Amino acid sequence: MSESEHIYDITVIGGGPVGMFTAFYAGMRQLDTLVVESLPELGGQVGTLYPEKIIRDVAGFAGIKGAQLVTSLHQQMNVFPDFAPTVATNEEVTAIEKNDDLFTLTTTKGQYQSRSVVVAIGGGSFAPRKLALDYDETLENKRIFYFVKNVADFAGKTVAIAGGGDSAIDWALTLEGIAKKVYLIHRRDQFRGLESSVQRLHQGSIELMTPYLIDNVTDGDTFNLDLKKVKGDEHLDLPVDALLVNYGFTADNRALRNWGLPLEHRLLKVDENMETGIPGIYGIGDCVTYPGKVKLIAAGFGEAPTAINEIAVKLYPERRQPLHSTQLEH
């Protein structure tokens, strides 16, 4: 049977952590599942951008590296071999069409048919917010970094981190015991992170450079940051080995618009069952909106069973539905 003739119960669009867990849970419900991911590998933003970052909002782990989380999710997806998902990577969905009770998904490599669709694309495509100043771009991945692939690269070095949110604070705390010296540069005296992380920040050896902005960077015999005090004329020269910029990312979820799905503030509007305004299409994770929505991996993990159980009821109403987690083992 050709792929276009095979009919899946569920197609999950997006292979990040939330999409991977969705595929696993669908396997527990014995649903024939396809995962389509535009990147060459599963793992999404966590696997691509934060393999070394400690993630703390996953239940059961005091902290787990992004790469370790993705590896664990890979293993979890294949716990039930007979219902392990089919995975299509490096493949982008370009169109979704509904004919009666069947969806046809056109991708950059072909077509798939599915009885339901779960959209889990997170924030969509992403790019880092870069330094708002002119600098030699050949310094990127040599002196100036926007991603950390291996924390060992910063061992014994003097590192400056720019930013004041959770990501910048997390990297400062992670590198504190690895780098020779860590500076955290922020334009305000207050930080926008979790209270527990901010407390650790003030109790450790990280030197807080506030309120300063990076006005210029120069590279020669040494790599120097010219820091300018906010609302003042004071300048400070800071020699470092590396600068890690954490100003956040710009996200582009134009795929949602291209697919013609109902949006609210550029996000998928879903109901209490995570279903969109198009019956059979569901949304979970950072790409959706509803009253009280929280953009955390933990929240996305919780939304997945809601969507999958609703789909299972509609596709196979004769099956016994799980009442609680322990019954899923039988």
From TrEMBL:
InterPro entries for this protein: FAD/NAD-bd_sf, FAD/NAD-binding_dom, Fd--NADP_Rdtase_type_2, Ferredoxin-NADP_redctase_2
Cofactor binding annotation: Binds 1 FAD per subunit.
Domain of life: Bacteria
Positions of FAD binding: 37, 45, 50, 93, 126, 286, 326
Domain FAD/NAD(P)-binding: 8-295
Quaternary structure annotation from Swiss-Prot or TrEMBL: Homodimer.
Name of the protein in question: Ferredoxin--NADP reductase
Organism expressing this protein natively: Loigolactobacillus jiayinensis
